[in-house]
Amino acid sequence: MDISPLAFLQANMKSLCVPPKDYCSCCLDFLVCGGISENLVLKCLTKLLEFIGKLVFLPRTDPNMVNAGDMNGSGNLMDFLDEPFPDVGTYEDFHTIDWLREKSRDTDRHRKITSKSKESIWEFIKSLLDAWSGWVVMLLIGLLAGTLAGVIDLAVDWMTDLKEGVCLSAFWYSHEQCCWTSNETTFDDRDKCPQWQKWSELLVSQSEGASAYILNYFLYIMWALCFAFLAVSLVRVFAPYACGSGIPEIKTILSGFIIRGYLGKWTLLIKTVTLVLVVSSGLSLGKEGPLVHVACCCGNFFSSLFSKYSKNEGKRREVLSAAAAAGVSVAFGAPIGGVLFSLEEVSYYFPLKTLWRSFFAALVAAFTLRSINPFGNSRLVLFYVEYHTPWYMAELFPFILLGVFGGLWGTLFIRCNIAWCRRRKTTRLGKYPVLEVIVITAITAIIAYPNPYTRRSTSELISELFNDCGALESSQLCDYINDPNMTRPVDDIPDRPAGPGVYSAMWQLALALVFKIVITIFTFGMKIPSGLFIPSMAVGAMAGRMVGIGVEQLAYHHHDWIIFRNWCRPGADCVTPGLYAMVGAAACLGGVTRMTVSLVVIMFELTGGLEYIVPLMAAAVTSKWVADAFGKEGIYEAHIHLNGYPFLDVKDEFTHRTLATDVMRPRRGEAPLSVLTQDSMTVEDVETLIKETDYNGFPVVVSKDSERLIGFAQRRELILAIMLSRDEVNTTKKRKDSNENARQRQDGVVSNSIVYFTEDPPELPPNSPHPLKLRRILNLSPFTVTDHTPMETVVDIFRKLGLRQCLVTRSGRLLGIITKKDVLRHMAQMANQDPESIMFN
Asked: Which among 383, 441, 540, 668 counts the fewest CB atoms within 10 Å?
């Protein structure tokens, strides 16, 4: 029975609509869904006319033979297949791309542009524009990412201070900005000025006493709950993909996975707004990880404006790698660290050209952020420090101890956080994301307010912990007992005995450390934007500062010990506690993320402490060694596996003695492999095979008896080729004869037409319908391995070539197929994990 082209289109094109399960967003929705929204009418009609024009006016070289695959070398079908359908991508959602195919397409495109550039001046100019389009995209990404980061920093400062008070002269000023403009601010009380009033002063005209404290406490909690509720509501209603850090998904996307909408414009807008809200709410999270997601959204938006990147998923991922570098550049003010972070931690494919463009994007982003100057200190970062004492070899021992602490903290955090997130996914807790956010925010605000080190923003806390204690510092951490006879310069203050303020600060820091460790485990992974860099650094900085103060006091009171005798004389400035805080921050961040090189570069760019690279390296390496002793996965890889994303990590080693035949499908007891034959199947047979299966493609063999492999045909190209040829023929026939039996009386492709993939058509009886040639869409060199190939080699092939599937043969005879999903399931099974956790194709 013949199937009409319309029915065939409806049956097979729904799976190509984007986003998934929302077919009416497809510009073919008037065919597929039976309805269309008003704001898409004009767009869809335009696309429909373009589509019909391609079908009707497509050149045909032989009126007596429908040759949809080759068209005698005209290539019109392949040009058509390279052009995505209206709102239809080349790949379906939650599928992996074919890196080799994308690379080949880009090579063909570049070869065509190069050959045309010699024909005329205009074509030469177009080739120059194409060559410079990559740099233009990098420039636009850097400008937008830097601008958004600056706006986010300014908004976070204002809204964080809004929880405690308001500036009367200009309500949009933060506390610091408000007092800058005041002429009545003194140095001793530089945090106090008449223009800035706490809520108790504004509402009940009281700044001290129990009632003022309770009112400020209550309003602090209310503001935090308001910010958090608004953020989680916006995420849930408008952009569900705006939650979390985004780095696990970015890593998966850069490895070749398709997640439609994750880098969309709505995600960019909502994540930018909600990131300000959640950081201002006081939750134990940071904005650095989400800023990488924001920058990649910018990269995806600008790459869609250039056909060079919008039509090639491989080239698009080069742009996203550079965008990730720009995101870290503006998050930490560390452009070089951003490039290294993209290379070491995020990117899957990072050619030299991408390295140069990443550097340029990070440079532009850092320059834009510096121009905005959100911190008001004429620097890129909030944590800039200047230490006046060098470090000594004897201090390497406490630095290494901090590295051990960072590794243990990283292991503890990953295991506890993954266990909590798994519980969230598998129990009723996951059904109430708004309630979870509200409860965690309430607990955080209630416990955080009484302690000054948890009440302030985490960035300000880290800045204070990093600072060296000079003569002008008023922090409790600098409350030392001074010698009244001291005549040293201000920058060379000797070690002094700790005063009561230091001991009080030590207790408060210890309580804040325990609180941060516990609450961060439950905060990271909620349905709001949540970064992990700053909370991890805060944990390490608090531990490091306490260790630094301890070493400082030990050196002061016991300077005659052998470990201090050679380098710490009485009256000398020997130990810098702020340096220990910086080393502890690097150790804890490295323990959680397993970063090494990029981490050290980010830390010295972040603080300006170029002289202290060796302590940072020692702590980072020790942290990684200790954490790796308990498990190789960092927090981002752990969340990738938790979510079941098909990510083949290049850092993992496969050491099991299994063969390709152990993994390939079909296995014993399973149905035989679905294949196409080179010249014995009809159009109806191919349509039926496509409708009854959901495979991405089909091997083509000589015959089902010999199963000698010829090539591989993609599902999407089969669908479009058959639809194109039959619609073209039927459109022509409807002009000549409106009788419903016209198909039988006209020469052309019908359901019983033979489909062939060879150069020459098969021999057919005289009255047979004309065959359909599809050789042009056939991949004649699919990647194959033998059934005795070790899986270690197969895994390396999938990693390094980015394959979607690999065919298994023996002496040219097709035995089975191995997909990326099969490889991941096998690796999970060998690691005693659930192989069904790999959810996507």
From this structure: 668
User: Is the pLDDT score of 520 beyond 70?
Assistant: yes
> What token pair was written down for 404?
């051990």
User: How much is the pLDDT for 787?
Assistant: 92
pLDDT at residue 37 tops 50: no
Contact predicate 494/486, CB 8 Å: yes
Cβ atoms 466, 385 nearer than 8 A:
yes
**Has residue 81 got a pLDDT over 80?**
no
Residue 330 is predicted with a pLDDT of: 92
Which residues does 663 contact at the CB level (< 8 Å), separation at least 6?
Answer: 791, 794, 818, 822, 823, 826
Looking at residue 426, its pLDDT comes to 83
* Longest Cα separation, the chain: 116
Place of tokens 């800023």: 291
**3-class secondary structure, 157:** helix
Full-model pTM = 0.82
What's the pLDDT band for 309 if we cut at 50, 70, 90? very high
What Å distances lie between residue 715 and 130, 380, 462, CA to CA? 31, 50, 54
User: Which DSSP string do the residues of 723-771 spell out, in sequence order?
Assistant: HHHHHHHHHHHHHH---TTHHHHS-S--TTPEEE-SSSPPP--TTPPPP
What one-character-per-residue DSSP string does 316-367 give?
Answer: HHHHHHHHHHHHHHHHHT-HHHHHHHIIIII-S---HHHHHHHHHHHHHHHH
Q: Which two tokens stand for residue 570?
A: 């009485």
DSSP 84: P
Residue 87 in this model has a pLDDT that exceeds 50: no
- Packing angle of the helix pair 577-593, 635-643 (nearest 10 deg): 30
Query: 3-class DSSP state for residue 85?
Result: coil
| Tens-digit pLDDT profile for residues 570-625 | 666 788 888 999 999 999 999 999 999 999 999 888 887 778 889 999 999 999 99
pLDDT at 623: 96
What DSSP state is assigned to residue 75? -
Integer angstrom CA distances of residue 6 from 317, 374, 568, 773: 35, 57, 86, 21
- For the cut 70, the answer to whether the pLDDT of residue 819 exceeds it is yes
Mean pLDDT of 413-441: 91
Cis preceding-peptide flag for 666 (omega within 30 of 0): yes
Q: How confident is the model at residue 434 (pLDDT cuts 50, 70, 90)?
A: very high
State how far the Cα of 93 lies from the Cα of 615, in Å rounded to an integer.
46
Backbone φ and ψ for 766, nearest 5 degrees, come out as -55, -40
Q: 629: how many CB neighbours lie within 10 A of its CB?
A: 11
- Contact predicate 294/566, CB 8 Å: no
Question: In sequence order, what E strands does 568-621 have?
Answer: none
| 583: nearest Cα among 628, 551, 559 | 551
The CA distances from residue 816 to 556, 669, 673, 698, 809, in Å, are 73, 14, 7, 11, 7
Spatial separation of the C-alpha atoms in residues 217 and 212, rounded to whole Å = 8
- pLDDT, residue 349, reads 84
Q: Which residue has the higher pLDDT, 688 or 390?
A: 688
Tell me the HSE value of 777 on the side-chain side, using a 13 A CA sphere. Answer: 31
Output the six-digit token pair for 539: 């944990």
Alpha-carbon span 245 to 252, nearest angstrom: 13
Q: What mean pLDDT is reported for the chain?
A: 82
Asked whether the CA dihedral 371, 373, 378, 384 is positive or negative, the reply is negative
Beta strands 805-810 and 813-819, pairing class: antiparallel
Non-local CB neighbours of 319 within 8 Å, separated by 6+ positions: 134, 137, 138, 141, 299, 300, 302, 303, 309
Backbone angles phi, psi at 819, to 5 degrees: -105, 170
Enter the tokens of residue 306: 């250039």
Q: Are 34 and 6 in contact (CB under 8 A)?
A: no
